[in-house]
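Known limitations

Files may contain more than one protein. Parsers should not assume a single record per file. Below, a two-record file is shown to illustrate correct handling: read the sequence, read the token line, then continue until end of file.
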Amino acid sequence: IREWIFTYLSFLLANSVVVLTLEYKNELKKFIFKNFQEKKIFVISNGIDVNQFPLIDKINGNAISNNSFNIGMAARFTETKMQELLVIMLKKIRESDTKFQIYLYFAGDGPNLKKVKDIVKEEGLEDFVTFDGLLNENDLANWYQKLDIYAHASSGETLSISLLQAMSCGLPIVASDVDGITNLLKQDQEYGYCVSNDSLLFADTVINICKNPFQAKEMGLKASNLVKEKYSHTNMLEKYLSLL
């Protein structure tokens, strides 16, 4: 509620207001209603350094030959993020008859970190889940390079930097079908797999990606090209300079 109040006040007092997505602009329009001024509001998406997160242009040969895949999620451990869902997803994959060996990597810290670590311990998955902690941008860029699949479980986003980074690397993506993710991964075409926040659906999608790595990689390549075209930091800078 506080955030909406401050948003409303800033809209009244500021000369210009920047939002990250068209969807959020439309939310504002409904909320502010009579006081909404179209000319005041500008949509400028987040941007990343695509050179720091280069395309991983080859399918991981070891993953295919050994049926061993690394999955990662980079995000703070908060109430809106759902790393625990990925832990239960891993458990379901291990309980299934699949031949694939899945390893899970988490980057980030936050208030819910201990809770997720406790779940990993309770489920006996310590050998298959790694907590890499809070990484700086250089280390994070290297972290993506060891992944075969990027997963992002969340109750909602505005415009996730982690997803943009994973897309820039061309990683196959499975993510929550929620606002802020679906509108990013499903634009003119699909750039990742969006599923409901259900651990079994995540597990089934991951297994499907493992079975069809080249098809998933083709989708990842399209996602990488999209980020270069629409979500680079130079593109973002040009829009802010134009506004200023």
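...continuing to the second record:
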Amino acid sequence: MRVLIAVDESAQARTVVEALTPWLSRSDAEVHLVSVVDMSRVPVAMRAGEPAFEPAPYFGGTRPQAEQPMPRAVETHGQALERARTERHEWLMRLAQEAMAGVAPKVHVVADDDTAMAIAKYGAEVGADLVAVGTHGRSGLSRALMGSVAEQVVRRSERPVVVVRAGMQTATPFAPFEG
């Protein structure tokens, strides 16, 4: 059995991992821990030598002179994306070590503009038998305005999806759920 656990850097991520770890530690499941870096949130850096803004046309008088040189990019967009991926990978490794006792997950970081679709595609790519995602439990207007990645994963995934909320407990694979 292959289980894909998709997490972001929220507190809810630890909830998903902690809810599933007791079950996973007693099973022989191959576990994939994945996180998606939203490329649309990685800052678009300037190209070296380009001004940070377009100068407005100046009509009449003496043009003011800038005493400071124009800012230059500290890193390119590609470098910023690679840094974000590296930082996310390190965070996932810490999460796995701290919260997944008895489970040795394969850790993956994916970069995409559509988090839910990336999770659904990655679940199919690794042949997951189950995809697990967390939910913040929003409802009503806040859910309508902010959307729900978990809901979109459920709608788009070809694999079964379990959605974990804070406080959920799982049954072990060898004992029925009592609750």
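Parsers that stop after the first record will miss the second one. For reference, the second record is described as follows. Residues 5 and 132 are 5 Å apart (CA to CA).
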